[in-house]
Hints:
It is elongated, with a radius of gyration of 20 Å. The chain is of the alpha+beta class. It has a two-stranded antiparallel sheet. The chain is built from one helix and two strands; from the N terminus they run αββ. The protein starts with a helix and ends with a strand. The model has no long low-confidence stretch (mean pLDDT 89).
Amino acid sequence: xxxxxxxxxxxxxxxxxxxxxxxxxxxxxxxxxxxxxxxxxxxxxxxxx
Length: 49
């Protein structure tokens, strides 16, 4: 039984990684395109997306 528990743990960890990566890719793809303006302690930064 102990070997099966380890296998389930590995499969669960891989599933979490795949779901997390999918969420990250989805967030990156749905970002609005254009210019991003950030004002912070380091000054103003402009990035083109």
